[in-house]
Design brief:
transmembrane; about 500 residues; peptidoglycan synthesis; transmembrane helix
């Protein structure tokens, strides 16, 4: 598992770098303008309308596929997969039709502050991006299929061709003065992702079948698992809706500033958290279906500490260097000084909840593997209620930054609640040992941040800003991992030992 996680982190890092280039390109050509706000809303609406269903289905898919394959055989599992895809295609056609008819009211729900040209642009973009839902169905299901088949690389590299196509569409749209190419570029990128997944799925024995059976017992069981996830995702999307609606009212470009800040925290989440959970989820699902609870709890413990090892230092580093990081990545072209201030503030306060957000994903997937989707749903509902209350309390005082802080506080609170619920369900996860590891990681992160702060000031006096920040980050990472080497954290020590064994084997 450790080898797969490390490889996945490297591949995800490459994908995220290209994804960053996409966001930097959008920031350069459109900044925090009305067009960028309209484009981002047009991206968000299909995700909310259908993405919540897709997430629930793909989450329930792996535990059910594992059970069907073990009890009924691979052919039944393949039939179940195709039936699920075909049912979703029919269902999504209804959603798309309704979305095309009621586009403007839907956009107004998502961004009540939009008026005039920005509103018209968002409506036009959304009518195009809604068509991408068809490709999203295949992308979600086939990605889960390949992850179960242990072909993790392909789904996690899909972001590269997608980002390159979107980058090309952004540049072309700006150069030709035709913003509609932004929306068409997104749909084209989704189509390419679908083709790539289809090719590799066929190499892993997937075959498309014309099966449509609403009475299938396996489909019914999967829906029972998926419905709580769908409801949980729905309330989370309501939360994002409130965030974006308030952002559209707080400031022009507020939606874009939140998006860029979220992109930065999502970079850490995507590389570290997603890499761990992508490998962990199929593994613990198999362990749960076989009744191997001790092995499952050990894997969970290692995954939780692993997420903390990587997200805690990233959190501390982001808190210290929020503004320089935003300046380095986005401060050019149409992205002006006011955009830097807005985005930096949001990034700072999003960073506070980075660890909580990561651990919540790990803990939620632990419940999913046990075929308990209700507990994460209730947790998500509590998080949304808390977040919305905090939004209305903090946004009038802190603006965009208040929306980000509300998200972080609710994530931390609900992660603690999930820990409590998981302990009640499966017993001890060696919490004392876990807490000791967390304290050691926090101490190493604090020393790293303090040293980096003073090193950065020195470098700024003798070199230009970009190399000063990059060199400071490198030195901070060296300090952090050197400290970990002396702190005796089991998850870290096992990872280092595994790398040493691999290197020793290659150089024999």
């Amino acid at each position: 598992m450790k080898k797969a996680v490390i490889i996945l982190m490297i591949l995800t890092f490459l994908s995220k770098i290209v994804g960053f280039l996409r966001d930097v390109t959008l920031a350069y050509f459109y900044g925090t303008s009305g067009i960028s706000d309209a484009y981002l809303i047009a991206l968000t609406i299909p995700v909310v309308i259908f993405g919540i269903v897709a997430k629930g289905i793909s989450t329930g898919y792996i535990p059910m596929y594992s059970r069907i394959e073990q009890q009924e055989g691979p052919s039944s599992a393949l039939r179940y997969t195709n039936n699920l895809i075909n049912v979703l295609l029919v269902f999504s056609s209804i959603i798309i039709l309704l979305g095309l008819i009621f586009t403007e009211p839907v956009v107004k729900v998502f961004a009540s502050g939009f008026e005039g040209e920005t509103l018209a642009t968002a409506v036009y973009f959304t009518r195009i991006t809604l068509l991408g839902i068809y490709f999203t169905i295949f992308i979600r299901i086939l990605s889960a299929y390949l992850n179960y088949q242990k072909l993790f690389a392909v789904p996690n590299l899909l972001g590269i061709p997608m980002s390159l196509i979107v980058i090309a569409s952004i540049i072309t749209a700006s150069e030709t003065g035709n913003p509609s190419l932004l929306a068409y570029g997104l749909v084209a990128a989704l189509a390419v992702q679908w083709l790539i997944l289809l090719f590799f799925s066929y190499r892993k024995s997937f075959r498309y079948q014309k099966v449509f059976d609403l009475k299938d017992e396996n489909l019914r069981r999967m829906l029972i698992l998926a419905i709580p996830v769908i409801l949980g995702s729905a309330v989370q999307q309501i939360n994002k809706l409130v965030d974006r609606t308030l952002a559209s009212q707080v400031a022009v470009g507020g939606i874009s500033a939140l998006n860029y800040a979220h992109t930065l925290t999502n970079f850490v989440h995507g590389i570290f958290v997603t890499s761990i959970t992508t490998v962990m989820f199929p593994s613990i699902s198999r362990m749960a279906s076989k009744g191997n609870s001790d092995r499952m709890k050990y894997t969970l413990h290692q995954s939780i500490v692993g997420v903390a090892l990587l997200t805690l230092p990233a959190t501390v580093g982001a808190l210290v260097f929020a503004e320089p990081i935003v300046r380095l990545l986005f401060d050019r072209g149409a992205f002006d000084s006011s955009a830097v201030v807005m985005t930096s503030g949001a990034f700072f306060f999003y960073s506070i909840g980075m660890v909580g957000t990561g651990l919540r994903v790990v803990l939620s997937q632990a419940f999913y593997s046990l075929q308990d989707t209700r507990t994460p749903m209730v947790n998500a509902a509590i998080a949304v209620v808390l977040n919305i209350i905090l939004n209305f309390l903090l946004a009038p005082v802190m603006g965009i930054s208040g929306l980000a802080l509300a998200t972080s506080i609710s994530a931390i609170f609900c992660t603690v609640l999930l820990f409590y619920n998981l302990k009640k369900k499966i017993g001890s996860l060696q919490f004392k040992k876990m807490a000791a590891a967390f304290l050691k990681i926090l101490a190493a992160s604090a020393v790293m941040a303090a040293a980096a702060y003073y090193v950065y000031d020195y470098f700024l006096a003798v070199m230009l800003f970009p190399p000063a920040l990059l060199l400071t980050m490198f030195i901070g990472a060296v300090i952090y991992f050197t400290l970990l080497n002396f702190l005796k954290i089991e998850a870290f020590d096992h990872g280092v030992a595994g790398i040493k064994r691999k290197l020793a084997g290659k150089f024999k």
